[in-house]
Amino acid sequence: MSMQGADSGQPMRGRVVGGMQKVIPSPRQPLPLATTEQSRGPTGTTKKPTRTAAKRAAIPGRGDRRLYAIDGLRLLAALVVAFHHYAGTWRVNQPGNAIWDRPVSDIMPTWFRFSAYGWIGVEIFFVISGFVICMSCWGRTPRQFFTSRVIRLYPAYWFGIIFTSVALIVMPGVWPRHRARDVLLNFTMMQSGSFVSNVDNVYWTLWSELRFYLLFMAVVVTGLTYRKVVVFCCLWGAAAMITPAAGFRPATLIINPEGAWYFIAGLALYLMYRFGQDLLLWGILALAWLMGQRELGHRIDTVERVSSWRGSVLIFTVFLLVMVAVSLGYTDRIRWKWLVTAGALTYPFYLTHYLVGTTLINRLRDTMDARLLVVSVIAGFLVLSWLVHKLVEAPLARLMKRGLDTSFARLRNASSMS
Q1: What is the rounded end-to-end Cα distance, in angstroms, of the chain?
Q2: Closest to 275 (Cα-Cα) out of 31, 13, 3, 25
Q3: pLDDT along the chain (418 residues), means of 10
């Protein structure tokens, strides 16, 4: 999760630390309504900010903290999704399935009952993504936003494509291999727009994320403020309700009504975190919950078919309450350093665990206890994810950042010369 530093335009202030004066960034205090909420007297003197403007000022210290609890929640979401894929899907509970060869509910009945709800981890990802994206790009330029998304998403994703494609060649029989032309198109991350199948089924969530970034870029271009993000949430929510009913497919594709309300919930939660709670934000969050529970039910009926609506809504509600606690500062004391590593493992783990993991289970299912096998496969992918983060993601991200910064500088210079 990207955090803002001294290079993001924050004023500096001095503080005496240990007998010496140390210059540290002053907390950002944007007043998104200052230009309209601050009125001027007849002589041109500025009156005191109104109560509304003061209320919209950022809570001191909130904008520049790392939220360790968010890192932990991200990894937890990835783990429950993995347990679901290995021991809780409708597919693995069918007789003669390619992964376990018999219903997993016969092998691990208790694990199946709990893992059946693990798919909700994807919706949790979307809420966290709305929160984190708003946090990480606050005060950034569109160029910085674009660069941060590219270097965050592509290095581990490219590794995942290569890793999965090679694994399916080496261990055939469980999942079909993809045509070379389709694998190559997957490197763009835009294959869904061309009706090309994903190398790994879990990549469908990236298509939803990309559409969110595209929409949110419109706000980033104008500069993020409390008011603009609130208006964005309201307009996006209205469009998510209208476009499916209108039957206008291009708009529906862009608006992404299936995932919109989860991202909107994350945006509202971040505004609570940065500016404090108010009735408007609670209203947006409540509406996101109401629309989200309907979407959960729709997914159960059409895709998952292994969990109940009541249980799914309960889990989703508890998660939102945890996120509210994060937004209101109740988790600020959590500063466990290992959670930073946990957050770094999440993305590569999610990208690599499904097809290769289920293929490994197919090969090893008769060699050990099923529960031990699931735990061992997950542990192995966590180790792999740490290696990917250290040896692939981090160094490649640095190279790409330097290259993109140079490219944008060249573009800027060319524009000024012309």
Answers
A1: 37
A2: 31
A3: 39 41 41 36 43 57 79 97 97 96 96 97 97 93 94 97 97 93 96 93 95 94 95 96 86 92 98 96 97 95 94 97 96 93 96 97 96 98 98 96 93 75
Q: How far is residue 31's CA from residue 35's CA, in Å, rounded to a whole number? A: 8
3-class SS shares of the chain: helix, strand, coil, % to 5: 70, 5, 25
Q: What is the DSSP-derived secondary structure letter of residue 31?
A: -
Tokens of 318: 């508890």
Q: How many CB atoms are closer than 10 A to CB 34? A: 16
Q: Is 21 helix (H, G, I), strand (E, B) or coil?
A: strand
Neighbours of 387 (CB within 10 A): 12
H-helix or E-strand spanning residue 69: helix 68-87
Stated as kind and residue range, the H or E segment containing 13 is: strand 12-17
CB atoms within 10 A of CB 379: 10
The tokens describing 325, both together, are: 């606690």
Phi then psi for residue 16, to 5 deg, are -85, 120
Residue 393 identity: E
Residue 242 tokens read as: 């209208």
CA angle 22, 136, 228 (to 5 degrees): 115
- Residue environment code for 235-256, b if the CB has 16+ CB neighbours within 10 A, otherwise e: ebbebbbebeeeeeeeebeebb
